[in-house]
Write a structure and sequence with these properties.
This protein has about 130 residues and is of the alpha+beta class. The protein has a single domain, classed as Metal Transport, Frataxin, Chain A. It has helices at about 15-40, 105-115; strands at about 45-50, 55-60, 65-70, 75-80, 85-90, 95. A 6-stranded antiparallel beta sheet has the order 1-2-3-4-5-6, with helices on one face.
Length: about 130
């Protein structure tokens, strides 16, 4: 019998520092662009604050989601009210190092739970 849980994502040695920076910065920029669009369209009031590789989202009700790049590990870290997760690039997607779930799906799920409104983030075209 096979398990429905994806296997953990192993470390990737092949990804260069330059490639990690390009992909992680594109992910942060896509999140910021989505938040800006929601503000312009009066969908939800989320404040985003970016300092280098750290992006903090302040959601209605005072909760926060923090996304942080981890260059030495080639990972994106996501901290939300429900917990923290580490993501690594694998086949063009950011996947959780423990359960294999996809970063933008998880970010959407956490943002939806914390904002009390259905919100969807999408991965940038690479």
């Amino acid at each position: 019998m096979t398990s429905a849980t994806p296997s953990p994502i192993p470390p990737t040695a092949a990804q260069s520092e330059r490639e990690f920076n390009r992909l992680s910065q594109a992910a942060l920029a896509a999140i910021e662009a989505t938040v800006d669009r929601w503000l312009d369209d009066d969908v939800v009031d989320i404040d985003s604050q970016r300092t280098g590789g750290l992006l903090e989202l302040s959601l209605p009700g005072g909760s926060k989601i923090v996304i942080n790049t981890q260059p030495p590990l080639h990972e994106l870290w996501l901290a939300a009210r429900a917990g923290g997760h580490h993501y690594r690039q694998e086949d063009g997607r950011w996947l959780d190092t423990r359960d294999g779930s996809e970063f933008f799906e998880a970010l959407s799920r956490h943002a939806t739970a914390q904002a009390g409104l259905a919100l969807r983030f999408e991965a940038p075209a690479t």
